[in-house]
Amino acid sequence: MSINKDDLKTVLSLVKIDENGVVYKRGKFVELFSKLHTNYVISKNNGSLYNDYQQIHQDMWKMETVFSKIVWENKLWKQNTLDDGAWIEFAQIDIDYFHVVFRSCFDHIASAISDLPSSHSCPKSFNKLQKWILKPDNFKRIDENISSLIKTCNWFNEIKDIRDLTVHEDGSTLVFLEKTSDKILFQTYGNWKERISISKIMYNQNVVIFDLYAGLYYSYLLVFLEKLSEIIDSSLGLKAHGKDPRSSHTGLFFIIKWVNELLLL
Predict the structure, then answer these.
(1) Quick one: which H or E segment has residue 172?
(2) What is the rounded distance in angstroms from the CA atom of residue 222 to the CA atom of residue 245?
(3) pLDDT digits (tens, 9 = 90+) for 23-42
(4) Can you give the pLDDT at residue 136?
(5) At CA 195, angle to CA 192 and CA 198, rounded to 5?
(6) Number of compact structural domains in the chain
(7) pLDDT in tens, 131-164
């Protein structure tokens, strides 16, 4: 899989550190979430869509928390404060949880799309939605710009397959003990075979660098949400009640770091 560096550059334009050292994200996704919140508080309109965006925002927050947590645990392990067994167990759960939340986020995205006034009985599972819009009669049952955007999201299946493997099938995640590396190293296996192989973010032929892996897919998700939110905002025409809304989380510091590393590849 090639790396979309345009998306990575977009992420660096959205995720910033202010003069007080607070790291935050801004943009169309955060703006629409803010508008939906204010609109619901004032008029109780678009309640279902607001709830969907609240869930999406929470999923993003959970992933950002995973980034902070796993880096902190890695630091403790390298300082010999955390033993090898604890590091492997904790990091494995963090990585699996990242995939679970990522997958959940896309079902909340599908639910948001289904709650739009322009949508008509579309699935609330993103996996089913992708297949549903391939039918000619269904493509125009939702905003055609959204249908086209969904069709470009082929990388979703890469995350979905890993999540399904570890949650529903025989898959397992292994974290590697390599203190000489400054990276977090893992691989997911199914039937004793490596299931992740993205040449530019591998530590070696068999081992994945989680820092770059998480940074890449989180970036793709954020850019997807930017494009989707711009389409939805344009169709709803909600009034803004404030300027430059932001969403802050310390985990975003690592997104800046990891995206900059990805851009050097």
Answers:
(1) strand 172-175
(2) 16
(3) 999 999 999 999 999 999 99
(4) 87
(5) 145
(6) 1
(7) 999 998 888 889 999 999 999 999 999 999 999 9
Q: How many Cα atoms occupy the beta-carbon half-sphere of 24 within 13 Å?
A: 15
Bridge partners (DSSP) listed for residue 190: 193
Q: What is the mean pLDDT of residues 59-85?
A: 98
Asked whether 123 and 132 are in contact (CB, 8 A), the reply is yes
Residue pair 233/32 in contact by the 8 Å Cβ criterion:
yes
What is the span of the domain harbouring residue 127? 5-263
Q: Say if residue 166's pLDDT is above 90.
A: yes
Give the tokens for residue 235: 């169709």
- As a whole number of angstroms, the distance between CA 36 and CA 14 comes to 20
Question: What is the pLDDT, as a whole number, of residue 22?
Answer: 98
For the chain, state the CA radius of gyration. 19
**Sheet of strand 15-17: strand arrangement:** 15-17, 23-25, 247-248
Model pLDDT, residue 101: 98
Cβ pair 30, 252 in contact under 8 A? no
The residue among 51, 61, 52, 55 whose CA lies nearest residue 24 is 61
Q: With contact defined as beta carbons under 8 Å apart, do 25 and 247 qualify?
A: yes
Element (H, E) at 17: strand 15-17
Query: 86-108 burial, b if ≥16 CB within 10 A, otherwise e?
Result: ebbebbbebbbbbbbbbbbbbbb
Residue 241: band (very low, low, confident or very high) from pLDDT cuts 50, 70, 90: confident
Closest CA to 232 of 220, 244, 224, 241: 224
